[in-house]
Amino acid sequence: AQLATIIDGKAIAQSIQRELKEEIEQITAAYGRVPGLAVVIVGERKDSQTYVRMKRKACAEVGIKSINVDLPENVSQAELLDTVLELNADPTVDGILVQLPLPKHVHEEMILNAISIEKDVDGFHPLNIGKLSMKGREPLFVPCTPKGCTELLVRSGITIAKKRAVVVGRSNIVGMPVAMLLIKLDATVTIVHSHTPNPESIVKEADIVIAAAGQAQLIKADWIKPGAVVIDVGTNPVSDSSKKLGYKIVGDVHFEEARKVAGWITPVPGGVGPMTIAMLLRNTVDSAKRTLSKSSA
Ligand code: NDP
Known about the structure:
The protein has helices at residues 9-31, 46-62, 77-89, 108-114, 126-133, 144-155, 175-184, 199-203, 255-258, 272-295; strands spanning 5-6, 36-42, 65-71, 95-98, 164-168, 188-192, 208-211, 229-232, 236-239, 247-250, 264-265. By secondary structure, the protein is of the alpha/beta class. It has two domains: 32-116, Leucine Dehydrogenase, chain A, domain 1 (Rossmann fold, 3-Layer(aba) Sandwich); 144-273, NAD(P)-binding Rossmann-like Domain (Rossmann fold, 3-Layer(aba) Sandwich), CATH 3.40.50. It has a six-stranded parallel sheet. A three-stranded parallel sheet has the order 3-2-4, sandwiched between helices. The protein has a two-stranded antiparallel sheet with strand order 9-10. Helix 2 crosses helix 10. It is globular, with a radius of gyration of 19 Å. It binds NADPH dihydro-nicotinamide-adenine-dinucleotide phosphate (NDP). NADPH dihydro-nicotinamide-adenine-dinucleotide phosphate is lined by residues 145, 168-171, 173-175, 192-196, 199, 212-215, 218, 233-236, 272-273, 276.
């Protein structure tokens, strides 16, 4: 049987970064400053440090100034809040990203609510999420991973409108917003989560599957409708003694099996991950353009 077409997220993200680099050169020539992204990290979690390093490196590659704020694990709620408020007031900062999760003693909701909605490049402010969920309203920013998923579809020439989409997972950062975004783009959407009986029979109805459960290889070939598009958001470490670090990363989909049934599929790594970063850069550039065109009007 024919194997699914692989959607190369890494290559698509690279071409987006090339486009952004050109746009940034134009912005800089027109307004005399580069877009700025504040990347705030609290504590020393290895995974968070890796993500933050990748985000800062990507900024440098396209010509965004990254404002690096590294705070200790024991930073107080008040100090972190002050940091956010300072960045809100700083005219050279177009976007503010606070890497999650925050330490337990910090009130995450309060910190995210304090980020100016005009600089909320992660798109997690309740006002931006609310507008994403409402008909006739446009959020200032759409969360990066959800936007990365739909951008992969659009750039692969896959139509979203009128399709049946099933999202596996309902988290605030992936499952719920990607479902809202797909509805905005005129798909018919079902969400399944950990309390859904027989999720496999629901997933099997999908023309488009978005897997964001955080469960290694949960979704098997027999969950998938032949020819369906499978976007795998999951990044799950599983032990692998043949690897230098002793583990490898797998998705929420059993890739090798599923590609025998699906029409299109994203690999892990190299699918959604690079797109999340590309969309963060996209949101930052959009923010800079919005601010600069307003201030010169
Ligand atoms: P969460 O753990 O916050 O949410 C997981 C969701 O999946 C929950 O809604 C949960 O249901 C649901 N779920 C768990 N088990 C099952 C199951 N067996 N069947 C159906 N639904 C289930 O994870 P995130 O949303 O933050 O992340 C999901 C995955 O995506 C992770 O692997 C994460 O590492 C990855 N990720 C990747 C990114 C990227 O850029 N590539 C960015 C962000 C995340 P319930 O609500 O009932 O608990």
